[in-house]
């Protein structure tokens, strides 16, 4: 299932300690200015989707959508995750190109 190139790279970022997962922690990182990229799953609830997209837009944080929470969770070595924030600019830049390339 984790055959897309971005999933392996997201796993690397996780092992480097540059990923925050979960809705509340992601919102805090966006507000603090630490989030360089937000990755949101397509199957997020409407409330979560609205909260995350509004915060990301307001604070100027790029947002990318991926297919589902299970792929996102598997990429970071955890159970299903709806949203993650990348806190490193280098990882964020590479992840954007990998996700956009699919």
Any idea how many domains? 1
CATH fold name: 60s Ribosomal Protein L30, Chain: A
Question: CATH H-level name... which superfamily?
Answer: Ribosomal protein L30/S12
Secondary-structure content class: alpha+beta
Give the terminus-to-terminus CA distance: 15 Å
* Number of helical elements: 5
Protein name: 50S ribosomal protein L7
InterPro entries: Ribosomal_eL30-like (IPR039109), Ribosomal_eL30-like_sf (IPR029064), Ribosomal_eL8/eL30/eS12/Gad45 (IPR004038)
Keywords: Ribonucleoprotein, Ribosomal protein
GO molecular function: RNA binding
Question: In words, what does this structure look like?
Answer:
There is one protein chain. The protein has 102 residues and is α+β, with helices and mostly antiparallel strands. It has a single domain (5-100), classed as 60s Ribosomal Protein L30, Chain: A (2-Layer Sandwich). It has five helices and four strands, in the order αβαβαβαβα. The chain has helices at 5-15, 23-32, 46-59, 69-75, 89-100; strands at residues 19-21, 37-41, 63-66, 83-86. It has a four-stranded mixed sheet with strand order 1-4-2-3, sandwiched between helices. Helix 1 (5-15) crosses helix 4, helix 1 packs antiparallel against helix 5 and helix 2 (23-32) runs parallel beside helix 3 (46-59). The protein is globular and about 30 Å long. GO terms for molecular function: RNA binding. Keywords: Ribonucleoprotein, Ribosomal protein. It holds the Pfam family Ribosomal_L7Ae. This is 50S ribosomal protein L7. It comes from Domibacillus aminovorans.
């Amino acid at each position: 299932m984790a055959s897309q190139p971005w999933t392996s790279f997201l796993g690397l970022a996780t092992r480097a300690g540059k990923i925050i997962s979960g809705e509340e922690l992601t919102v805090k990182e966006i507000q603090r200015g630490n989030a360089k990229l937000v990755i949101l799953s397509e199957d997020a609830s409407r409330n979560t989707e609205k909260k995350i997209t509004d915060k990301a837009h307001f604070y100027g944080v790029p947002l990318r959508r991926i297919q589902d929470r299970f792929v996102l969770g598997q990429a970071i070595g955890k159970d299903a995750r709806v949203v993650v924030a990348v806190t490193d600019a280098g990882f964020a830049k590479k992840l954007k190109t990998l996700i956009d390339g699919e």
